[in-house]
UniProtKB/TrEMBL annotation:
Ranges where the GH3 middle domain occurs: 299-362
GO MF assignments: acid-amino acid ligase activity
Species for this entry: Dokdonia sinensis
Protein name: GH3 auxin-responsive promoter
Any Gene Ontology CC annotation: cytoplasm
All copies of domain GH3 C-terminal, residue ranges: 389-493
Pfam families tied to this protein: GH3, GH3_C, GH3_M
PANTHER family with a match to the protein in the record: GH3 DOMAIN-CONTAINING PROTEIN
Amino acid sequence: MAILGSIIKGAIHLKDTLSSDSHPAEEQKEVLQELLTKAKDTAFGKFYGFSKILEADDIQSAFAKAVPYFDYHKMATDWWSQVYDGLEDITWPGKPNYFALSSGTTGKKSKRIPVTEAMLTAIQDAGVAQVQALSNFELPTDFFEKEVMALGSSTDLQERDEFLEGEISGITASNIPFWFKGYYKPGEDIAKIDDWDTRVATIAKNAKQWDIGALSGIPSWMELMLKEVIEYHKVKNIHEVWPNLQVFTSGGVAFQPYEKSFNALMEKPITVIDTYLASEGFLAFQTRPDTEAMKLSTNTGIYFEFVPFKPEYILDDGSLAQDAPALNLSQVEKGVDYVLIISTVSGAWRYLIGDTIAFTDVERAEIKITGRTKFFLNVVGSQLSVNKMETALRELEEEFNIKIPEFTLSAKKIDGEFYHCWYLGTESDVDESKLAEALDNNLKEANKNYKVARGKSLKGVKVTTIKPSIFAEWSGANKKKGGQVKMEKVMGEEKFVEWEKFVSER
């Protein structure tokens, strides 16, 4: 009998039973009050009058009126530049020990986002809450004795002045609680290997030494790692190496686009649990099995606001117009796309994280990620969000019985006419013109603005199919493999020229 597993599972069930029902909207009011109280004597808090906001009858409304929206560039230029220089009490009391480096999907130059001790504690608290939620997933007792393979960025953090820098997954992995170290794989030594290919090759070599029950990481990079392990050991699927694998905790991007190709690597179904860990914090995680939505982490140091995702509120560079209205959690509606705004215990204030979300259950504060503000294709009025693109591609997969885990596109002028030019990552050999016709029809059905645009200025759709591995090669050539790096779904004209040249050389 798995005695330790029984104890852990029993403790999780007991904790879940003793926990009172959460009230997300009320928790958010408390979080904002705590944030403002702790930061009121910082330079930022004094400049924007946090003490006065705290005296207001409605501090959520007062906060929204007093503090403008910040994207990374504005936050870094106006405030975090002083933190980089080592000054204290700028946007959060004291100064951080870490900076999370994030190139994300925007280019080679990394952003430097403060990570305070309070944020590390908040991330751990959210992680514990996620573990507690496992009681809802009917996992067998022995699962809680198995090891967890976390594939993130290197934990070998780099010193810069008085700070340590690395991607958020590397920072959090280097600060894992002592009680989890026995479960954590690939272990500290392998996790420190900076070169992603070398780290994955080392994981593959050692894979059979571990009894992996759960995987955690970004789907695209996890899939490549699993293929490497399978190939190294000359087996048909990953369960021949890790027979007790039962759970994949997916993070960074939606899992659905990778579902078909990911499941092809399995001998038996596994439980997929979505999470939303960004460089700015642990924002949400899935708490129950009968939904693909994630619950916002409403009581762990992050205050959320929501701006309706409308073209008139989004500037050309993807930032927000300052007159765009912001809603708090008590004001949102189900099924509406919102730009996500956060204020955190790392000293990010009314910060545009760059993602768009929609609520699937307002009372539970459950969301799904619908896209990126910069991945919004509105050339010639098509108003295509990533969510609509993904929906059209999933229909394409079903129609042609193919797998399309990766894609990118751009609006391109050809012979004086605008086309949406798609690159689909797939191993299939379906005729590209048939895919283009079907994709065009799917998009017309999914988006009325796209249908209108197709009758006017948008001439048509062009599709080019390429191997999915080329997307990883592009990320490796332009940024860095693994970690939090994600493929840009919509490219501007200049970047698309570089992309097409890169593809033509493969």
